[in-house]
Amino acid sequence: MHPANDPSARPRLPVTLRLSALAAAALLGACATTQPAATGAPSPAAPATTGAEAPKAATGPAAAASGPATGASAVATRPTPPDPTAPKPFAEVSKGATRQDGLFPIWRKDEKVWLEIPRSALNKPFLFDVNIASSIGERGLYASQMGPSTMAEWRRIGNQVQLIALNTQFRAQGGSQRAVEQAFSPSLIGSVGVASADDAERKAFLIDAGFLLSDIPGYSTRIEAAFRLPYGPDRANSYFESARAEAQLSTLAARMHFVTARIPAPPMTPSPVPMPSPPQTVPDPRSFFVTYVYNFQALPETAMRPRLTDPRVGHFPQSFTDFSSDLKANPRVHYVRRWRLEKKDPAAEISEPVTPITFWIDKNVPERYRGAVEGGIVEWNKAFERIGFKNAVVAKQQPDDANWDNMDGKHASIRWFVGADVGFAIGPSRADPRSGEILDADIGMSDVFARGSRRMIVEDVGRSAATAQGMPAMPGAFTAHGLPGFASHAGHDAHFCSYAHEAAAEMHFALDILEARGDIAPDSPEAEAFVQQVIKDTIMHEVGHTLGLKHNFKASTTIAGAQLKDKAFTDANSISGSVMDYNAYNIALKGEPQAGFNMTTLGAYDYWAIEYAYKPLDAAAEGAELARIAARSTEPALAFGDDTDAGGFGPYDGMDPLANRFDLGDDPLAYYKRRLQLSQELWSRVQERPAQAGEDPLRRPRSMMAGFNQLYRSAELVGKYVGGMHAVRDLPGTTGRASLKPVEPAKQREALQFLATGLFSIDSFRFKPEFLSSLTVDYNEWDRPSVNLPAAVARVQIVALDRLLGAPTAQRLLDLPGYVPESQRKGLISLAEVYGTLQSSIWSELKSGSEIDRLRRNLQREHLKRVQALLLRSTSSLPPDALSLARLHATQLQADLRKAAAKPGLSIETQAHLADSLGVLTEALRATMQRS
């Protein structure tokens, strides 16, 4: 009950005063029956009566003709004064306003905007979402980003209207529904007073849309996370810049002004924790505008029949907890997120759909790339044709003079956006929470490829250049869709895809190699064709996401290494089993035949995943047919592993060396070795090529760093072999295969040796002094440092160290014998062997008595830091046996350091390094361990 209507919420008089007031009212009421009211004095109201005692008011002409009333009759017939708090008439509020008819009609007059809410729309669910149409272009705050969404409804309490986000995470049917509603609360998005009385003809009332000129999606938290400054929305300088309405949709674009009172002065003493700078892309960092696009979209009258997911195939789920029955051990339910696709002619073997999946190419996509974008969209029709649909996916170009924004809730779109530090593409979608039916999708693609084609990927993406040169990334660079406000909890909202940036970096490396070999010229038609193909590949990938497909980071391993050298094979089948992998460029080594470079079409997995999600099936046969389709997961060409399998975020370090981002072929370790050879070839050719007059001064530093970026990724992934486990997604009782299988000991040792002799070796990173001394910086950009060779080498090596010395690797190596029958345990690799091999490789100079190069000293210091941390700051996640082994090997290292430090003839730098290392390690061994 609204407080205004709740008697318990009204002010209460003391008991004695209440009694006195009641007595006085009774006395006045009695007097009113015998005496007329005094002229000019207020008349007391007659006491209320109920039931048979209630007097009936006179009505009709006879009552009017009886003449003026006096006495008690005058009190009874005096007109009630108008309620000053009552809403004004609908016509009075809307006078002079223009109306746009739609799901919730929009009325506009000057700067005022109202929404018309039909009484029939109250308590009726619809989809409410917010998109970010424009922003400031840095630190994750980018334009053209799909924001949060929820199933919502209008609720009216008295003269207050609430916009409520419904809780779709927990559901029930039957008798459990009331318990679920009591247990799990909805959320209030916003509320506003009724602006008008009901219109009798429309059976609707108005509300002031100004309540939307607030931070409903929680963008201020994202801003604060990026800059660590308290920005807030400025209502007075925010406004609605456009509106659009139609039968199933109402859209309002709000131009939101964000402001902070002041930019604080930097501290007198630099903080040990790096702090981000204020916004750099706006004229005044205290003020900027962001455009929200609010969408009110009708849900389908009849929900689509849902289709359950299967973990053997990768689809984004629409997930919820179902409390309808307590007989299920696991109440979680997962529906496939997919578009509603129905044949016009169900009896035809192949038919056009009733409603095709239509993607609009935004008018902000550069004209030169529109053909590649369209090609990436319609390529998916090949998969739909296999299951009986013709022209299931359609690409349309938004006219350049169009006055509508496809960030509304009706147009699935491909949008092009720019930023000072941006380099990614993203393919989010929105679905009906009831069924998983995808209703909208907006692919955002940064202009990273335009820069990539001009070799600007490393330097011209702002702060990312620091990361590329071995410097830590600046904090606050988050994805724009991770808003802290209401969320649909669909599983896909947390998805982030960096494929565009990574693919552009791969393209940059490939073009540098080919250019250095003389196979391609900068800015040539061949180079432009390269760029166009990568754009098509990336659009295929992102459209796959908007069709409901997750990443598949095992797909690249379904193609044999020999097939990658066969041009006829790659022309027909491309280079990977799926466009949903992060596929590297297929670059031949010097002297090898060159086959196809990158993904040009769909892979076998893509056809399979589309079949599971979209094949038309009768309800009665659907379960059995889906089980049959999913059972094909044992076919080698359909191997699947998603982001969790690949690891690299949260608690997941990734334990299967066949589930990776950016590898090629059925032997990823062989691919990483080839990458080292290609990087060394690039460095050799760049050093041999003299600088040319008029050349971009950053050309050679870029090529140098391109090789290091390849090795950084390789070092991270090689470490997955050590203590690795192959994982398959078979359901219990379906195949008899082991779900987890340790990586072959020989392969683990091969990976260790590659690190020891390759990435940990100084010989892998030798550059001519003449080359290093010729490298320059961009003197127009003072905050961009010159190339730091030791830092770049350390970045490659540290990622492998952290992997091999981490707690997950130690735990798996200790657990490994438990996964192997006792008769087969001979020859297994152990944690002791890994620690020993790593230590002897990194500190090999201690045995040989040779000088220790500067780059090697850096590597040894990094190893010693991690050993010291293990000895002094043990965490509960590191197994006790791992601690014991770490101490044992540290004691051996201490003895080796003593012997090496006593040898004469070493340089002063090496002597100092040995003495310092010995001192640090000795202190760590003597200290008391701080166990947590």
UniProtKB/TrEMBL annotation:
Q: Name one GO molecular function term.
A: metallopeptidase activity
User: Where does the DUF5117 domain lie?
Assistant: 146-344
Q: Does the keyword ATP-binding apply?
A: no
Q: Which residues form the EcxA zinc-binding domain?
A: 525-847
Pfam families found in the cross-reference section = DUF4953, DUF5117, DUF5118
Where would I find the DUF5118 domain in this sequence? 87-130
What Gene3D superfamilies does the database record attribute to this sequence? Collagenase (Catalytic Domain)
Q: Where is the signal peptide?
A: 1-37
Q: Which domain of life is it from?
A: Bacteria
The record's region (Disordered) falls at 35-95
Task: Write the record's keywords in alphabetical order, separated by commas.
Answer: Hydrolase, Metalloprotease, Protease, Signal
Which spans does this entry mark as compositional bias, Low complexity?
A: 35-78
Q: Could you identify this protein by its name?
A: Zinc-dependent metalloprotease
